[in-house]
Automatic annotation (TrEMBL), chains A, B:
Keywords: Amino-acid biosynthesis, Aromatic amino acid biosynthesis, NAD, Oxidoreductase, Tyrosine biosynthesis. Its EC number is 1.3.1.12. One of its GO terms (molecular function) is prephenate dehydrogenase (NAD+) activity. It comes from Arsenicicoccus bolidensis. This is Prephenate dehydrogenase.
Length: 387, 387
């Protein structure tokens, strides 16, 4: 049986303990706070003892992770040691500088791509890593056995193992995690200037864009500092796009402020096609170009967004959607699914629209494109209304 | 009984129709596409006829809204006319220029702060506006009776009426809607440079920040152009914050790249507190200041985020979500729905997560809170795995 030691029993450490226990591993727990370690033990994440581990997981904050890794390498001379911090190059350099001779080979970085809005052992769950990427980051000096031990750990915790170099990892998380954090922060920071009335108009879009702006400033200062070069590189490109957008907006604002001047009498204007949004009468030179700049940027955003995988890590796939009207009575959905099953068609995704007070609901049934016409025909022939 | 006419039966128009019908109003529907109007009618949003309305709602794209408002003012000389576009100053100028003499007094702008990532009549719902702000924007020339009519409309659709001038409105939505759109777009646009591997590391944070980057570029070009001055003003402040963050990151990246040079022998280093994240050995002058810049920005983001209102009553209803593991084989969903029906429980909403290459899918079944424990017990007892 494999024995793991977990150093740091917050959300991630506790979840790893729970996941490894579920996989039949033995787990020892350690935390600077005895209370925190005891809580994780009581939650079933492991035991508190000094059994010799095969692999040690350092789940400590990024600014102390390298030091704790070095300590663990020294304390357990037979164990592979990994950390789970969200920057990897800086930790690896720190370990290389701090670790005793002949021990740095047992260090392999890792980064499970999982987290929750909540923190602490109580929020831990054994399925936190299920189906999510767990990046394993060997250093050039990592021994193959150590890499295998950390891969086995990630797989036992049910993560999907992805191997990357520290540079690859840090560039990737800059784009998919650290820069989004900065952008959410920049957006939220601007709300401080607004009165309550204005912020009261916020909708789901603002809530989504700014949700992670509530993240811990101390932790994120460490993360951004630890990946400063990678984050900066992406943000420089953002800065360039932003400057182009600002130029376009300046041209459009000019156009709008000058276009009011030469409104003709009403009679001449009515019936003409008029673009009410600036430039309706005397477009300033360059303003059509300004719209094109914005449209191209928005389109780039569409294309980037389309690359973002769905909730459970699957590649986005294009399905055809068949929209079926469902009478709002118990058993209707059961009948629909029985019909779909009869047609031998698999439902790939499904969304049910059911608004309170609405006489009918709509089921949006996603199927492989090849099956959609057949499904529509089959459902129509059996009396369903298709939209 | 009040009679409304809705011109444009997309998501918003159809939802207004459904909401007004639920409030006992009579509703006539009109759309340039007869199919779209018929769909909204079939969904219960109103009838297709030429009855004289008391109030007309123009739910057309922003670049034609002013023209359509002017046409409706002319066609229905006794009706108040409003639009629902998300910019107000530009539409009001357009209406003032295009409307016939003596009719501009019957125009009052409005902007219901509701939307969904999905569009079209099929996504319409009668509770879309419930508990959300519905901004009513009189022009200096609006007649009091017209303002009252539009306020009554917004209240009947269950929006929370907020009265603002066009300038107040446009400045507010720049900060809470238009700039967040630009920021989501800028973030998503950078993902195009990344390989699949990198984007595969995305988590919920990236999904949230970039969700609205999937918005329609044509519509958003119109919106941003229509509020160019307001959006630009906020984005100039963002540009300043971004420049400060870039300077801080440059200092930290310099520090990290030079700090490796003077690593002492291991023996001297071990046991010391070491900050693994840059500046661990010979902090460059100014680097502590750089961390303070980032920390202050992140803290500003915290404070801005804290101002964002929650879903307070705005969410149609809070349901409990029961997550059920579905074997990926034809007929599984049918069996699930049969079981739910057997338990006498109505499904209020449902989302199926089905990732390619994964052996199982997850069905997120929303039910009334009072029913969720019973549903969990029933499904477990009949052999389903509940997450």
């Amino acid at each position: 049986m494999t024995r793991a030691r977990i150093v740091g029993t917050g959300l991630i450490g506790t979840s790893i303990g729970l996941a490894l226990r579920a996989a039949g591993w033995q787990v020892s727990l350690q935390d600077p706070s005895p209370t925190a370690a005891a809580l994780a033990r009581d939650l079933g994440a492991g035991t508190i003892d000094d059994e010799t581990p095969d692999v040690v997981v350092v789940a400590a904050p990024p600014d102390v992770a390298a030091r704790v890794v070095a300590e663990q390498l020294e304390r357990w001379p037979g164990a592979a040691v990994t950390d789970v911090a969200s920057v990897k190059g800086a930790i690896a350099s720190g370990v290389a500088a701090l670790a005793g001779p002949g021990s740095v080979e047992r260090y392999v970085g890792s980064h499970p791509m999982a987290g929750r809005e909540r923190s602490g052992a109580v929020a831990g769950r054994p399925d936190l890593f299920e189906g999510r990427a767990w990046v394993v980051v060997p250093t050039p000096r990592s021994a193959p056995e150590a890499v295998d031990a950390v891969r086995a750990l990630a797989a036992a915790a049910r993560g999907e193992v992805v191997v990357m170099t520290a540079d690859e990892h840090d560039a990737a998380v800059a784009a998919v995690s650290h820069v989004p954090q900065v952008m959410a922060t920049l957006t939220a920071a601007r709300l401080r200037d607004r009165d309550e009335h204005a912020v009261g108009l916020a909708g789901q879009g603002l809530r989504d864009v700014t949700r992670i702006a509530a993240s811990d400033p101390q932790l994120w200062t460490q993360i951004l500092a630890g990946n400063a070069a990678g984050v900066r590189e992406v943000l420089l490109d953002v800065q360039e796009d932003l400057a182009a957008a600002l130029d376009a907006l300046a041209a459009l604002a000019d156009e709008a402020s000058t276009s009011g001047a030469d409104d003709g009498p009403h009679g001449e204007r009515r019936g003409e096609h008029a673009n009410a949004l600036g430039g309706r009468y005397a477009p300033a030179p360059g303003a059509p170009g300004a719209r094109a700049v914005l449209a191209r940027l928005l389109d780039d955003g569409n294309r980037g967004r389309a690359l973002v995988p769905g909730k459970h890590g699957g590649a986005p796939t294009a399905y055809d959607v068949v929209t079926v009207v469902i009478p709002d009575e118990p058993g209707s959905l059961g009948r629909l699914f029985a019909e779909v099953g009869d047609a031998g068609i698999n439902i790939e995704d499904l969304h049910l629209e059911h608004a309170v007070g609405h006489p009918v609901a709509l089921a949006e049934v996603s199927v492989l494109p090849a099956a959609s016409d057949r499904l529509r025909d089959h459902l129509r022939s059996t009396g369903w209304r298709i939209h």
